[in-house]
Design a protein that fits this description.
Helix content: 25-40%
Shape: globular
Distance between the termini: 49 Å
Largest sheet: 7 strands, mixed
Number of strands: 11
Structural class: alpha/beta
Strand order of the largest sheet: 1-7-8-9-4-5-6
Low-confidence stretches: 6-11
Number of domains: 2
């Protein structure tokens, strides 16, 4: 077990305002996050058609998500405008129509970087900024999807990626007095049980290949679980109760010191998504033909 010097900020502040006050350099992103959280309330009314077949895949893989396209286009325009550089705002932000908002949302939910890059080139925008902003645009929709799909998550799901949206976990909770390991998704806030001696990325289970990094004085509260086989890492944080949905991205950001500790020692999170996702967005009220056996969850 490798140890590092004590951390400066040991306890997450857990509110956007407090986090921004302590870390003003994060203000632009935190303000966009605040807009995304506000856009999730009231919750989006959605219908979801789940594809039949192997439930080893995330529930949103090959799914159809039906929602209010006017709300989607308005919300996408709002956040992309808020994230745009001053010179782009000065020249005018063009409203995004329904078809383009569908393309952007499908690519964001599927973590399809190639499609997002093509859309950024077509819009003459910075690809990295568009991809990062679209993850926040997708957040209210993904939160609604997770709520709608909660009852359909397979029991005993033990894969390293989110059972709803397919993302790698942002961190793991060592929850309760029994310190059960629960992975948390940074996109839809889903949580699922995951074995302690197991790498979420390559499924390595050999004790000799799995290690950890800890900060002196915080061995029982924070650590980084590492894997020699794939070079991956996962932050682990002690919690008595599940981290509330709205606090998941804040906790992830507040624990960035652990990311730095891991990357300084040569560990990294995977660049590629866990699953090559496919998802279709359609207008709410338009239910596609059901001859494919799709199970529809209707609002």
């Amino acid at each position: 077990m490798h140890r590092t010097a004590p951390a400066r900020n040991r306890a997450p502040r857990l509110t956007l305002a407090a986090t921004e006050a302590a870390n003003p350099e994060w203000a632009p992103w935190l303000r966009l996050l605040g807009r995304a959280q506000a856009a999730a309330s009231p919750s989006w009314a959605i219908d979801i058609g789940i594809a039949p077949g192997d439930r080893a895949a995330p529930l949103l893989h090959d799914a159809v998500v039906a929602l209010d396209l006017d709300r989607l286009a308005h919300w996408t325009t709002e956040l992309l405008a808020a994230a745009a550089p001053e010179e782009q705002v000065a020249s005018g932000i063009q409203a995004i129509g329904g078809p383009e908002s569908i393309e952007l949302m499908e690519a964001a939910i599927a973590l399809d970087t190639d499609r997002l890059d093509a859309l950024a080139e077509r819009r003459d925008e910075d690809a990295h900024r568009l991809a990062a902003t679209m993850q926040l645009v997708a957040m209210p929709v993904l939160l609604a999807c997770r709520t709608r799909l909660a009852a359909d998550i397979p029991r005993g799901w033990g894969r390293g990626f989110c059972p709803v949206c397919g993302a790698w976990p942002a961190f793991a909770e060592m929850r309760g007095l029994e310190r059960e390991r629960r992975a948390r998704c940074g996109r839809c806030a889903c949580d699922w049980r995951f074995d302690v001696l197991r790498c979420p990325y390559c499924d390595e289970r050999e004790h000799a290949q799995l290690g950890g990094l800890v900060v002196d004085g915080e061995e029982d509260t924070r650590r980084v679980d590492t894997c020699k086989r794939c070079g991956g890492y996962l932050k682990s944080l002690a919690t008595l109760l599940p981290v509330p949905t709205e606090q998941v991205p804040i906790v992830d950001l507040e624990s960035v010191e652990l990311d730095l500790i891991a990357t300084e020692r040569g560990f990294a999170r995977p660049d590629a998504p866990a699953v090559a996702m496919r998802v279709r967005i359609c207008p709410r009220g338009e239910i596609v033909a059901q001859d494919d056996g799709r199970k529809w969850l209707l609002t």
